[in-house]
Design a protein that fits this description.
This protein is of the alpha+beta class and 275 residues long. The protein has one domain: Glutaredoxin. It is 55% helix and 9% strand. It has 12 helices and 6 strands. The protein has a 6-stranded mixed beta sheet, with helices on both faces. Helix 5 packs parallel to helix 11, helix 6 packs antiparallel against helix 7 and helix 6 packs across helix 10.
C-alpha cells in the first residue's frame, strides 16, 4: 500500500506530458494506430486473475454502462483513469477489489469509471473501445482484460487488432464492436468522450490518473484507507439526513393528528355540552 502511495506521488500528470499530448492531439493519429507495423509480436491473450466479485465479470442488475453497484447507493465513487497509466493498472489490482467487496457489494457505493485518456493514441483507442463495450453492458470485464493485457505505453497493447481480440475474448457482439472501431466512427466517439471528460476533469482540478472522486469531491490519494474514510463520512451524512427526514415526517403526522381520535373527542365535547 505504501508503495502505491509513493507511486502516486510520481504519477504521470497532464502537465508533465503536455508535449506528448500536443504531439498526438493534432490529428489523434488514429491512422497511425490503424497502420502500425503489424510486425509487432504479442504474446497470447492474457486472462486476468479473478477479481473480488462476480460483478466484475458479467452483466447483472447492478452493472450499467460504466457503473457498478446499486444505482440508488448513497455514495458515488468515480475513478478517473487512463488505460495506459501503470498506476491505474496497480489501482485495479491493489485497490479496486477491496473497494468493491467492502462497499459496492454492500449497497453503500456505486462505482463509476471515468475516462481521462491523455497518454497517446492507444489511450484514445482504449477509451473508445471501453465506451463501445459499455454500450453492450460489458465494460467491466473488458476493463479487466485491457488492464491485464497492458504491455507498456504505445506498445501495441491497444492496437485495434488487439482490442478486437480482447472484445472477442470478453464475448462482445463483434459486428457491433467492429463497426464502432472503424476509423470515422471511432473518431466521432472519441470526440464525444474527450469533450466531456476533459471539461469535467479540469473543472474539478483533476490532472493525474488515477484520481478518485467521492460524491463529487476529489481525494488527495487513491489508497483504500483514504477512500474508506471519505465513504464513511458520506454514509454518516446520508444517515443523518435520513434520520432528519423521518423526524420531520413524524412531526407532520403529529400535527395532522388522528382523525378518528379527533372525531371521538369532538363527540364527547358535544355530549358534555348537551348535559
Amino acid at each position: 500500500m505504501h508503495s502505491m502511495l509513493r507511486a502516486r506521488r510520481g504519477a504521470t500528470t497532464l502537465l508533465t506530458l503536455l508535449l506528448t499530448t500536443l504531439l498526438v492531439a493534432a490529428s489523434w493519429s488514429v491512422v497511425a494506430a490503424q497502420e502500425r507495423d503489424d510486425g509487432l509480436e504479442w504474446g497470447p491473450l492474457v486472462t486476468p486473475p479473478p477479481v473480488a466479485t462476480p460483478l466484475m465479470w458479467s452483466p447483472t442488475d447492478q452493472v450499467d454502462g460504466f457503473s457498478m453497484g446499486d444505482p440508488d447507493a448513497p455514495v458515488v465513487v468515480e475513478v478517473w483513469e487512463d488505460f495506459q497509466c501503470p498506476y491505474c493498472q496497480r489501482f485495479t489490482y491493489e485497490i479496486e477489489p477491496g473497494l468493491v467487496e467492502s462497499f459496492v457489494e454492500t449497497g453503500d457505493v456505486r462505482l463509476v469509471f471515468r475516462n481521462l485518456a491523455f497518454l497517446g493514441d492507444e489511450s484514445h483507442w482504449a477509451a473508445v473501445a471501453g465506451s463501445l463495450a459499455a454500450d453492450q453492458n460489458m465494460f467491466w470485464p473488458f476493463h479487466d482484460y485491457r488492464v491485464a493485457n497492458f504491455g507498456g505505453n504505445e506498445s501495441g497493447s491497444f492496437h485495434t487488432d488487439r482490442l478486437l481480440e480482447i472484445g472477442e475474448a470478453v464475448g462482445l457482439d463483434m459486428d457491433q464492436f467492429r463497426e464502432g472501431l472503424k476509423l470515422e466512427n471511432a473518431r466521432e466517439r472519441w470526440a464525444e468522450i474527450d469533450a466531456t471528460s476533459r471539461t469535467e476533469a479540469y473543472a474539478m482540478g483533476i490532472n493525474a490518473t488515477p484520481t478518485v472522486v467521492v460524491n463529487g469531491v476529489p481525494l488527495e490519494s487513491p489508497d483504500l484507507a483514504t477512500i474508506a474514510d471519505a465513504v464513511a463520512i458520506e454514509l454518516a451524512k446520508a444517515a443523518t439526513a435520513d434520520g432528519a427526514g423521518e423526524a420531520d415526517a413524524g412531526d407532520d403526522a403529529d400535527a395532522e393528528g388522528d382523525p378518528d381520535a379527533d372525531a371521538e373527542a369532538e363527540a364527547e365535547t358535544e355530549e358534555a355540552e348537551e348535559e
